[in-house]
Amino acid sequence: MLKNQNNKNKVYLKAIVYKDLKALYKIYCEPEINKWFGGKISFEQYKKIFRKFKKKMKNGESVHLAVVLENKEQPIGEVNLYSINREYKSAEFLIIISKKFWRQGYGLEASHKIIEHAFKKMKLRRLTLEINSKNIASIKLCKKLGFTIEGIKKEAIKFEGKWCDEVILGILNK
Ligand SMILES: CC(C)(COP(=O)(O)OP(=O)(O)OC[C@H]1O[C@@H](n2cnc3c(N)ncnc32)[C@H](O)[C@@H]1OP(=O)(O)O)[C@@H](O)C(=O)NCCC(=O)NCCS
């Protein structure tokens, strides 16, 4: 069950257009962000990933949107529902907010919006994500949204030279 919905409307979600890519790439390259995603990539690689998501969006396999402050146009982050499985009505969830905008409630609000879209509009039943156990901010955000820990993958990833657990989190539309 999705918890703590607020109606502050500080951010909105919009389709990503080509001119947003520079800003989104810059956010992705912030060291405090890309350390959770395996390190830096080139802008060319980033554009390639975007094109893949765009294709998947057309096929209904992903929903990839920019997070934008009310009355602004430049993205401060992105949200993503990917690996959408229509048969099992499930998807994986991802959110990124630029470090400059952390701890102001934007991550929570943007997450509520995409999760509501997943459950109410897309009629999905289940969202999941797997997070590095050291990524406390993301785990706490997910718990605040109503995700629960469904399992731990022991020493599943190598992070900063050490083996780390991965936490499996899930939320059901109930
Ligand atoms: C996780 C992330 C999206 C949170 O964004 P945010 O805009 O700062 O989040 P919010 O301000 O809405 O915070 C919501 C809740 O998340 C938790 N949280 C967020 N940042 C936290 C931090 N640094 N430490 C502990 N808890 C944190 C808190 O429970 C917070 O509620 P509170 O402020 O009432 O205590 C952001 O830190 C981020 O982009 N991290 C890197 C990307 C990433 O790792 N994504 C992983 C997959 S989801």
What does this structure look like?
This protein is an alpha+beta fold and 174 residues long. The protein has a domain of 115 residues: Gcn5-related N-acetyltransferase (GNAT) (Aminopeptidase, 3-Layer(aba) Sandwich), CATH 3.40.630.30. Helices cover 31% and strands 35% of the residues. The protein is built from five helices and seven strands, in the order βαααβββαβαββ. It has a seven-stranded mixed sheet, sandwiched between helices. The protein starts with 10 loop residues before the first strand and ends with a strand. The model has no long low-confidence stretch (mean pLDDT 94). Bound molecules: coenzyme A (COA). The site of coenzyme A has 22 residues, from strand 4, helix 4, strand 5 and helix 5. Coenzyme A binds next to strand 4, helix 4, strand 5 and helix 5.
Low-confidence stretches: none
CATH names the topology of the domain at 11-125 as Aminopeptidase
The major beta sheet can be summarized as: 7 strands, mixed
* Distance from first to last alpha carbon: 5 Å
By secondary-structure content and strand pairing, the structural class works out as alpha+beta
Within CATH, the superfamily of the domain at 11-125 carries the name Gcn5-related N-acetyltransferase (GNAT)
CATH class of the domain at 11-125: Alpha Beta
Q: What is the architecture of the domain at 11-125 at the second tier of CATH?
A: 3-Layer(aba) Sandwich
How many β-strand runs?
7
Strand order of the largest sheet: 1-2-3-4-5-7-6
Please tally the helical runs, counting DSSP H or I stretches of 4 or more residues. Answer: 5
- Overall mean pLDDT score? 94
- Helicity level: 25-40%
Task: Give, in order, the helices and strands.
Answer: EHHHEEEHEHEE
Any idea what the shape is?
globular
Integer-rounded radius of gyration: 16 Å
